[in-house]
Amino acid sequence: MVFPTTPLPAAKIGEDDTVELNGVPVPTFGTFIRNLCPGSAAGLPGLTLPAGLTKAGLPVGLASTGRKGATTSSWRSPSRSRPCCRRLSPPRLGSSLAPAGQGGY
């Protein structure tokens, strides 16, 4: 099964107490772990790969969950897709991503 690693792109630094999901403010932590937490809690192997960047330069990913007790054979399909994934540059850290008054790197 392949699905988004998180339901939203990364929250901006300083704007990460709550995020808006479907027009509703929700707690950030619970929102960002909800796609991966069930498989992790069940002990299923998981893999996430970078899938691209938003227009704002924030990373997004695709995740895959394998069968319980599965080994590297579970990852044959995702690992074969890796050559088609272009290398992503690190996000640009600047005033647009940093809290007010803290600049960037």
Give the biggest sheet: 3 strands, antiparallel
Largest sheet strand order = 1-5-4
Class inferred from helices and paired strands: alpha+beta
Helicity level: 10-25%
What does this 3D model show about the protein?
The chain has 105 residues and is α+β, with helices and mostly antiparallel strands. The protein has one domain. It contains 3 helices and 5 strands. The strands form 2 sheets. It has a 3-stranded antiparallel beta sheet, with no helix packed on it. A hairpin with a 2-residue loop joins β2 (18-21) and β3. Residues 97-105 have low confidence and may be disordered.
Q: What's a quick, concise take on this entry?
A:
With 105 residues, the chain is α+β, with helices and mostly antiparallel strands.
Key terms:
three-stranded antiparallel sheet, flat, disordered C terminus, 105 residues
Architecture blueprint of SSEs:
Layout: E1 2-4, E2 18-21, E3 24-27, H1 28-33, H2 37-41, E4 46-53, E5 59-65, H3 76-81
Antiparallel strand pairs: 1-5, 2-3, 4-5
